[in-house]
Specification:
161 residues, mainly alpha, 7 helices, 75% helix
């Protein structure tokens, strides 16, 4: 359980921190250029974090790294979007202050609300890319389809001269 929590936090931080940083840098001027950066940068940071976490999970015999990381992304989206909206006058700086930001964060634990809020936030395409990519990888791996870049376990253990 502790390992799963660490992977969920890793997924959440690797996805939402670049988004929050871009929102803080843009403040009130979030436009198409920043949305393009979010759409490209966020999935790349999530993928890098996943590859590192997967290597760590293989040593610990933990098999659901990607799913747990995605759960972390979807459940913490509201909190991070509230933090990202604060410099622009929304989130925790809105008319209701901390209470409004807290409500936004708690409401964001519901996946459909995270989906809707990410459309307003500018991170919808990044969220769909990460989620769709994970589903595609899961479908290919569970189908048993031989992949050209994966070695069979028999070949991987032998040393070639």
């Amino acid at each position: 359980m502790k390992l799963a929590s660490c992977f969920a936090v890793t997924g959440a931080l690797s996805f939402w921190l670049p988004d929050v940083a871009i929102h803080i840098a843009a403040r009130m001027r979030l436009d198409a250029a920043q949305v393009k950066v979010i759409t490209l940068l966020v999935p790349v940071t999530f993928l890098c974090a996943y590859l590192v976490a997967r290597r760590f999970a293989l040593r610990r015999n933990f098999g659901w790294v990607g799913a747990v990381m995605l759960i972390g992304v979807w459940l913490t989206g509201g909190a991070f979007m509230a933090i990202g909206a604060t410099p622009a006058g929304g989130g925790f700086a809105g008319p209701d202050g901390v209470r409004g930001g807290f409500f936004m964060a708690m409401l964001g634990t519901l996946p459909p609300v995270t989906y809707i809020m990410s459309a307003y936030d500018g991170s919808l395409l990044a969220l769909l890319a990460v989620t769709g990519g994970a589903m595609l990888v899961w479908a290919i791996r569970s189908s048993g389809m031989p992949l050209p870049f994966r070695c069979s376990p028999k070949i991987a253990g032998k040393k070639f001269r």
